[in-house]
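Lab notebook, bench 4. Still working through the backlog of constructs that have no structural model yet. Next entry is a single chain of 55 residues. Request: give me the structure tokens for it.
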Amino acid sequence: MDEDRRPFWDVAMWTDEDERETERKRQEQRELIIRLNCELPSPRFPGPTPTIMKH
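Model written out:
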């Protein structure tokens, strides 16, 4: 709970860093999901699988 007692410039720096890290993770997550969706038919939609065009 001492995080709030950091000087504001320190907090600003950390926030910037965290946002970049979060964005990077989100991007990786997106790419992973896209790859999985391309390789595997989704178990959530049983039945005939739609053809996925590979780009």
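Notes after review: The longest helix spans residues 8-39. The mean pLDDT is 73. Flag for follow-up if needed.
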